Amino acid sequence: MANVTKVKAMTKEEAAAKSKDLAKAGASKLKGGASGFMTFIREQNIVGLAVGLVLGTQAGATVNSLIDNVIMPPIGLLLGSAEGLRGWKIALGETGASLSLGAFINDFINFIVLAFVIYIVIKLLKLDVKK
């Protein structure tokens, strides 16, 4: 036996009242959702995460500048290349293609120095203490 649902016909006034009630309920849920979002932002330290991301990006740029402008030029002077390590290339035949071994070594040094700086900052701020 099939379930049959009876639908009651509404007047325009009843439909308008029902629509207003649904709009109020939706607005109340929206306000609740916004306050829930603000609670989430506060409790999960999203602002702190955003600040850390910005500071980390700038720290990376500073370390890259240190390496490119302070550390690599003396190495380039020792190697006899104005480009420093980036000037080291291995030619692959007569086609003009080459492996940029020096650029890889330079980027690897950037990574090591940046990782070391992050390690030092974490140790200085004592962020690695287990609770």
Percent strand: under 5%
Largest sheet: spatial strand order:
1-2
Quaternary status: single chain
Kindly give the count of domains. 2
Q: What's the helix count? A: 3
**Straight-line distance between termini:** 63 Å
Helical content band? 55-70%
Q: Kindly state the mean pLDDT as a whole number?
A: 77
The largest sheet is: 2 strands, antiparallel
Helix-strand category: mainly alpha
DSSP strand count: 2
Gross morphology is elongated
Radius of gyration: 31 Å
Low-confidence stretches: none
Order of helices and strands: HHEEH
Q: Care to describe what's here?
A:
The chain has 131 residues and is mainly α. The protein folds into two domains: 32 residues; 75 residues, no CATH class. 69% of the residues lie in helices and 3% in strands. The chain contains three helices and two strands; from the N terminus they run H-H-E-E-H. A two-stranded antiparallel sheet has the order 1-2. Helix 2 crosses helix 3. It is elongated, with a radius of gyration of 31 Å. The N and C termini lie far apart (63 Å).
